[in-house]
Amino acid sequence: MTVLCLVELDGTGAADASLRALTFARSLAGSGGGLEAVVFGEATALTGGAGQGGAPAEAPAAETLAAYGVTGLYVVEPGRVAGYAPAAWARVLAGLIGLTGADAVLAAGTDRGSEVMAHLGALTGLPMAANCVSATLSGPATWQIVRQRWAGLLLEDALLEASPALATVATDTVAPTAAATSAGLTIHAHQPELEDGDLAVLATESAAQSGGVSLANARVVVGGGRGVGGPEGFAPLEELAGLLGGVVGVSRVVTSEGWRPHKQQVGQTGTKITPELYLACGISGAIQHIAGCASAKHIVAVNSDAGAPILGHAEYAVIGDLHEVIPALVAAIKARGGSA
Amino acid sequence: MEILVCVKRVPQVGGKIVVTGDGQDVDTRMSGFAMSPHEECAVEEAVQITERLGGTASVLTLGPPEAAEQLRDALALGAGRAVLLETDGREWGPIATADAIVAEARRRAGAGPGYDLLLLGNEAADTGDYQVGVRVAHALGWPCATGIKGIEITDGTVRARREYRGAEETFEFGLPAVITVKEGINLPRYPSLPGRLRAKRAVIEEYQPQWRPDGLRKEALRVPETERKQATVLGTGVDAVPALLALLDELGVLP
To answer: What is the count of structural domains for chain B?
Structure first.
């Protein structure tokens, strides 16, 4: 079958969540199926044609997409759709359903992916299954799906009866995996037809943070909860995160107390993270928080309460006061750096 | 400024989620219900906007008769009017839910000044469909922004901000419009005593919309299988730091 997947960019490379969605899409398309992708951006940047001075040696997006099994890449350049306009992006996908004969259209369950797929559902009148973790064709225009509810604390087995199937892919479940062999990728400069009003809602972007480490893509997250005690208690956590090349994340109580901005919240109503290491300091481990951090590869808890629920989700724990343990850890890392 | 806030009654889950024996619902025998968190912020935002610009913050829910409880919670926070779209307790999908909200918006417009702004939560805590607001906007032909964490309204124009890759993006569009908000847009107030008393006495408008299937049929809910592990304790207090440092080294996260 043919699967069409929206790919989002992170800088000039494909976003991690989109690589996960592509992995999902490839298994749905099956062997002999077609995996088509659409991306909004400069074609030259995608193929590495326009070098950015001092930019990291990152594989151009097109190369990565070929490695993930994409056979056809539709590029919509800024001259056609200038920036992020959710209704316009959905209109482009709607047009590509006709052009590619897609049996399913997927996007990552990110803010943008979810929004564009919701618009596509509204434009086509089709149902849209959000945050799927698996899907198989079980009959004519019938899909057996498993999707997340409660931000992944529950799974729902459901039947999606629609053609094409519209779905978003959970951002924290399917591991991004390249195909066994790279596909021969054909790039199409796509010139979509839009309708009046499609550009009525258009984002103006702040480019300041482009390429930086964010909570969603950080390799290390140092978490702080109620045990931090107040806004001034975060300095050692920030220092540790800085040393490890990571960022600070916090629990819901920390943002509802106003100690830290909401954008640092990890959890069901904040950000879902997928780091290599989550070091949870003074966090008891409410399930809404676990929903946001359960996909961390390794969870290490620092907590003064040996009975805290977080210890049931962590791999390792230090029982102790984070206000002593973290500064001592920071000192030890610095000492190690000095002697190396 | 006429604002309609759409809220959802969801189970209040604490230590863990339990599914009922038939696999159809979350077991709520040991827990209560609450307004979905993003929507509590939507109510607060609507109240703040009408405090600044005048008008009415109405609140709507689609749910069983007991969902009147969440409407009264919103009234206690300062909403001025409440509408219950009463169901027989069956789960409504996003398409049917959007239809029922659109019918209310049209009914209101037919009876006098319609709504200028519809506010919803970005996604409901339980079903997490991420689409009701967008579907409502398309049906009404209104612009829509989702995941919003900041709203400014000047002379009928909205500036809506949200996070994007650690930074921010902004959308500008005219009213009427649909906006879905996220927690963090504000810190919801606590209900006042006079607010609670007013909410208790308030009359709730009721309608009975027709359920219809959605093309996505729930078969069963289940708790994902995870290996429930108990953490290996590396040590106590600062004495554990060498072991912790060795672990970080092994994980390859040290500089």
So the answer is: 1
In a domain, B229, yes or no: no
Give contacts of A315 with chain B, Cβ < 8 Å: 229, 231-232
CB A110 within 8 A of CB A217: no
Q: Please write the tens of the pLDDT for every residue from A158-195.
A: 999 999 999 999 999 899 999 998 878 999 999 999 99
Give residues with Cβ within 8 angstroms of B155, minimum separation 6.
none
The answer for A 36-75 residues in CB contact with B (under 8 A) is none
Number of structural domains chain A divides into: 2
Sheet holding A2-7, edge to edge: A186-189, A72-76, A34-40, A2-7, A104-108, A165-169, A128-139, A142-149, A154-161, B216-222
For residue B253, is it within any domain?
Answer: no
Cα(A327)–Cα(A324) distance, integer angstroms: 6
- pLDDT, tens only, A3-18: 999 999 987 789 999 9
Kindly report the pTM of this predicted structure.
Answer: 0.94
Are A243 and A295 members of one domain?
yes
Task: Measure CB to CB from residue B230 to each of A151, A243, A311 and give the nearest one.
Answer: A311
Considering the domain boundaries, does residue B92 fall inside one? yes
Which residues, at least 6 apart from A95, have a Cβ–Cβ distance to it below 8 Å? A192, A193
Are A170 and A234 part of one and the same domain?
no
Domain residues for the domain of A247 are 220-339
Cis amide leading into B176 (omega within 30): yes
> How many residues in chain A?
340
The residues in A 215-254 lying below 8 A from B, measured between CB atoms, are 215-216, 219-220, 243-246
